[in-house]
């Protein structure tokens, strides 16, 4: 059929279907986030307008924000659906590079459709064209190459026939999953071609489940059988495989203590006797203690990021790693015995191989003992105390009032440590902590995407004042579109967690908390978050103190559900009270002389 490039692309999007986590069938691409400009409004924009009754198009207000919302869709649907974002050329396109980085680091599907300069070059240089002096083929969109799993520039309409199957492959493959960027020159978007009907035949995408190599599985079984103190570690790959139930049954059959990574949080019921808690810097002392004593760690579906491994100090130097992962890239890290395959299939076959083998009961019993001690510590942090509320107390209130179908999220600053370490699961796979890229601003934009993808339950996002000020425009996008979620804004006067890092490594406070920042004012202005959120169309519920927080949060939950707009809770919080998991994180530290000077031991050189 004869179509423009843009029409063919949009028609292909509509033909792609997906098997959803509950087993039902739905669209692979449930909607498009768009900001139109001269580079896409008369191509992709016109094509989307023709199918507006079948493919929702949500208007964003920053390209970065709407692309992060698209990431939020993928996270909330466990990678079964893919958010799409389209922009004009130049600055609009470059604003989406950060979101591509988030998707790349977190192994999440994302389809970005930035406009590009004219393939014909007839009107060059066009508005917003960067003009690379030494390479006439380079455009601003080449900046996406470093953060794309698949990048293509469609310079002729017929190239879609070869490109689109590769797009689908990357977006739905458990090993290669990541962002796809199709750069679309604005003249090519409007050019026509006779496309084969087969390109638009409906396709149902089911998660492929590659089975592991038998020999590799056998070696893993031998290592586990010889283990005296084995630990099972569950990552995001378990979530995306839908293997949480299988993992818990595996642990029960073989009496393995179970820890979770950041991406694996809420996969295990909190009170399960084998659940030892989250691992790493933002995890728990309970899991870190067992990890330090373990002689074998069976790591399933995790890329073993530095916060999970405490910069590779959380495990014993003699530990043996067995890594089960769909991606060989992640399975071979740090000399692990690699088992490449789907988490659900690998655990099923491995449990058959192990038969009635079980870990020592005394070792397994340590999980409940250590986690109980950690729970007591968290309880002590949640107790009311004089002064400003702490992050731990705020998380405690949200946790106590949450329900099984709810979804909680955060991304950056100090809240990941409080949410990962302190949250007690009330539902299965109901947390999104974007700590692969730790992207400030994801908290609000990602919550918009999650609210679209998860109409059941309440989406609650927790964020600091720094993240709010960095990227808040999608509050208005969500309010305008009619998508409700709760945002709990914790105002602690600046970038408090970086101030903490600065101080802990010998530096004086500088440029993080507002009192340490340069200003011409004796009494600098403060942001009025409640007034600002109200001006963006949100329902607002200020909480003057910890006692007022439960009522404010209850009211916000009700407003998000009934008013179909974001509900913002604003609370002043303590700037230096933190949950401590007792793990190390490797960062660059100033040289000894400078460090000593900062501590006041030396006069300046």
UniProtKB/TrEMBL annotation:
Pfam family, one: TPP_enzyme_M
Domain Thiamine pyrophosphate enzyme N-terminal TPP-binding: 47-128
Keyword Nucleus attached: no
Xref: InterPro entries: DHS-like_NAD/FAD-binding_dom, Myo_inos_IolD, THDP-binding, Thiamin_PyroP_enz_cen_dom, Thiamin_PyroP_enz_TPP-bd_dom, TPP_enz, TPP_enzyme_TPP-bd
Positions of the Thiamine pyrophosphate enzyme central domain: 219-350
Example of a GO MF term: acetolactate synthase activity
Alphabetized SUPFAM superfamilies for the sequence: DHS-like NAD/FAD-binding domain, Thiamin diphosphate-binding fold (THDP-binding)
Keyword Ribosomal protein set for record: no
Protein name: 3D-(3,5/4)-trihydroxycyclohexane-1,2-dione acylhydrolase (Decyclizing)
């Amino acid at each position: 059929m004869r179509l423009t490039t843009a029409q063919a692309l949009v028609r292909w999007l509509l033909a792609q279907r997906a098997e959803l986590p509950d087993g039902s069938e739905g669209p692979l691409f449930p909607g498009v986030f768009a900001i139109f400009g001269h580079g896409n409004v008369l191509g992709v924009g016109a094509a989307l307008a023709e199918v507006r009754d079948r493919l929702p198009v949500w208007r964003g207000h920053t390209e970065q924000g709407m692309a992060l919302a698209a990431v939020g869709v993928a996270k909330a649907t466990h990678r079964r659906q893919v958010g799409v974002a389209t922009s004009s050329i130049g600055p609009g396109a470059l604003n989406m590079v950060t979101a591509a980085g988030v998707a790349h680091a977190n192994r999440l599907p994302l389809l970005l459709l930035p406009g590009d300069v004219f393939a014909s070059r007839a009107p060059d240089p066009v508005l917003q064209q960067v003009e690379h002096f030494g390479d006439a083929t380079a455009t601003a969109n080449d900046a996406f190459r470093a953060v794309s799993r698949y990048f293509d520039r469609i310079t002729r309409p017929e190239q879609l026939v070869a490109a689109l199957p590769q797009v689908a492959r990357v977006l739905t493959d458990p090993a290669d999953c990541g962002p796809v960027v199709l750069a679309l020159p604005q003249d090519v978007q409007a050019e026509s071609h006779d496309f084969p009907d087969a390109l638009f035949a409906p396709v149902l995408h089911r998660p492929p489940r590659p089975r592991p190599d038998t020999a590799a599985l056998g070696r893993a079984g031998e290592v586990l059988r010889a283990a005296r103190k084995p630990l099972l570690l569950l990552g995001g790959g378990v979530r995306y495989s839908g293997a949480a139930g299988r993992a818990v049954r595996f642990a029960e059959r073989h009496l393995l203590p179970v820890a979770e990574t950041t991406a694996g949080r809420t996969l295990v019921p909190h009170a399960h006797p084998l659940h030892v808690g989250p691992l790493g810097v933002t995890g728990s002392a309970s899991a870190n203690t067992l990890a330090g004593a373990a002689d074998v760690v069976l790591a399933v579906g995790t890329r073993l990021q530095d916060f999970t491994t405490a910069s590779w100090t959380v495990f014993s130097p003699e530990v043996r790693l067995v890594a089960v992962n769909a991606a060989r890239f992640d399975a071979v890290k740090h000399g692990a015995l690699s088992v490449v395959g789907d988490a659900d299939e690998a655990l099923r076959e491995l449990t058959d191989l192990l038969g009635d083998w079980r870990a020592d009961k005394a070792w397994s019993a340590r999980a409940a003992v250590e986690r109980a001690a950690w729970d007591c510590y968290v309880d002590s942090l949640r107790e009311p105390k004089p002064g400003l509320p702490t992050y731990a107390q705020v998380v405690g209130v949200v946790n106590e009032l949450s329900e099984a179908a709810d979804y909680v999220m955060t991304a950056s600053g100090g809240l990941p440590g409080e949410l990962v370490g302190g949250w007690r699961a009330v539902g299965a796979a109901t947390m999104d902590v974007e700590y692969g890229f730790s992207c400030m601003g994801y908290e609000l934009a990602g919550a918009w995407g999650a609210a679209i993808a998860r109409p059941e339950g309440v989406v609650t996002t927790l964020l600091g004042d720094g993240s709010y000020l960095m990227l808040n425009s999608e509050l208005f996008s969500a309010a305008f579109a009619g998508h409700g979620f709760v945002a709990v804004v914790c105002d602690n006067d600046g970038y408090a967690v970086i101030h903490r890092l600065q101080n802990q490594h010998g530096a004086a406070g500088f440029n993080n908390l507002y009192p340490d920042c340069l200003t011409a004012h004796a009494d600098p202005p403060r942001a009025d978050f409640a007034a600002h959120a109200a001006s963006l169309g949100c329902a607002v519920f200020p909480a003057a103190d910890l006692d007022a927080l439960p009522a404010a949060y209850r009211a916000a939950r009700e407003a998000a559900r009934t008013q179909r707009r974001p509900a913002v809770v604003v609370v002043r919080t303590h700037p230096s009270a933190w949950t401590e998991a007792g793990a190390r994180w490797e960062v660059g530290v100033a040289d000894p002389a400078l460090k000593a000077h900062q501590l006041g031991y030396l006069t300046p050189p």
